[in-house]
Every structure is written in C-alpha cells, then in structure tokens.
Amino acid sequence: MTGWLLYKKSDSIRNKGYIDMHVAAGNRIGIKILLIFVEDISFGIDKNTWFLSYQGKKIRTPDFAIMRMNYPLLTKQLELIGITVFNNSMVAEICNDKARTYQYVAQADIPMVPTRFVRNEFMSEQVKQIALPTIIKSVSGHGGSQVFLFQSENSEKEKQEYVEKLLSDHVVFQPFVEGKNQDLRVYVIGKEIIAAVLRTAKEGFKSNFSLGGQVDSYSLSKSEIETVKKIIALFEFHFVGIDFILGEDGELIFNEIEDVVGSRMLYQCTDIDVVSLYLEYIWNYLH
C-alpha cells in the first residue's frame, strides 16, 4: 500500500522529524509513505475531465493521501480522481473556515461564543459598531495568527492597523471571553477521542503552543466527553483537533476545529504515538 504525504516545501523543512515518523511507522505495517510537494502538483480540467500531474509528468496515483496543508480544492480533486484523502474535502472545506465551522457546529447545541460573520469589504464599517473588548479573527488563520483583541485602550491608529492586517480575508467578531487564558485541544481519530491537552497562555490571551503557551495533559470529564461526541457526530473525521476555550468556571466553550492538526504538544506531554495510531486507523479504514 502506498500513501502520499502532502506538504508545502517550506513546511516540510520544519516538520522533517514528523515526516520521518510517518515513513517509519508506515514501514512497520506495510505502508510506503511518499513525500509529495504541493507546489509541484498541477491539476485542473483537460479533455473534459479531471487531471493531475507531478513535476510536469503523469504520476501513479496512491492508495490514499494525507493532506498536511489547507487546500480544500486540491483535496476535492484528489477525491474526484479516485484517491481517498485524510481528512476528506467536507472536513477541509468547513474546518479551514472559522465562520463555516461555527455555522455548521451550531446544530450540535453546545456552548459557543456569540459570533458575527463579517465579509472583509464590510469590516471597516462594522468594526465601528462593536462593543469593546472584541476579538476579531480571520476565518482562515491558524496557530494564533490573524487574531486581534480590540480594546478601549487601543488608539484609533492601532485599530486601523489591525483592520488593515485583516482586510485580505473575511473575519468573525466575538466578544472577549473572560476566562483563565486557557484552552483545550481534544485529539480525535475517526470516532475515537485519543487525548486532550490543556494549553495556558504565558502572556496575553493566545494560548497556542507555537506562540509559547504551556501545555499539560488533561482528563476529560463525562460531560466534556459528551460535548466532544456531539461534534464528532456531525463529521466524518479522520484526524483532527477540536479546540475549546475554558470559561471562568472551567466550562468548555467551542472554539474551532484543526483539520491539519499538529502533534508536537501531544508528544511532549503524553507517551501516545499518534502517528502510528493514525496510520493503523488508515490501514483498517481502507481494508
């Protein structure tokens, strides 16, 4: 069995160790993992049907592909030519857009922050109407990027600078949640909860590990598990991270879903080999 592991070239450099783990774990169970650079893929329509080439040539298609970047259009193209993609295009299309994620997950009737969806061309006008403090997020930002806290103490110049940084994308407005500056990532493979990791901001309001937040393993309560399962039931997940903000009383408030979920903090604070678990899941899924 052969699987593609799709990365941008720049991301593959800083994730070399993670890529090597996929290759080694695949070898142990009879899966050949091939690193494929997304920049070298050409795809579209030719002779009235879908086509895909790699480095300017036809390429033998794999049994499956693991997508490690936000590119729903490519995910869909791979599916259309018969390749099973992990995660699938439905997950990629919804979960890489915060507004679409909130809109879709709202049917689960779980605690969520009140959210306003704002088209980028309307943001400059609508930002004048917000109550402060308010968080404004790009719908496609990841890792804490493109997230800004608008407060009364910000100067008009600062607010305008924030707006200009966000104008390239649609955004969501959310009231700032007073809490513990903590959030929780729940790792899910298929329908199974694998682990949960609590992240605490060292400073400011962003608790992302990549921005220097502290991480610790976390045991979910029965009610928290039920909340997570309500979200899982809405999707056909393969491997994702479901993120929650912790409110003032420690309650879980849904935040977002990471389609291209990272695993560094899971390896740091648990002994779970999530790459091996994921490839074993893929093997069983395809057999």
UniProtKB/TrEMBL annotation:
Keywords: ATP-binding, Ligase, Nucleotide-binding. Pfam families: RimK. The keyword Chloroplast does not apply. GO terms for biological process: SOS response. This is Gamma-F420-2:alpha-L-glutamate ligase. Residues 102-283 form the ATP-grasp domain. GO terms for molecular function: ATP binding; metal ion binding; ribosomal S6-glutamic acid ligase activity. Transmembrane segments: none annotated. It comes from Anaeromicropila populeti. GO terms for cellular component: cytoplasm.
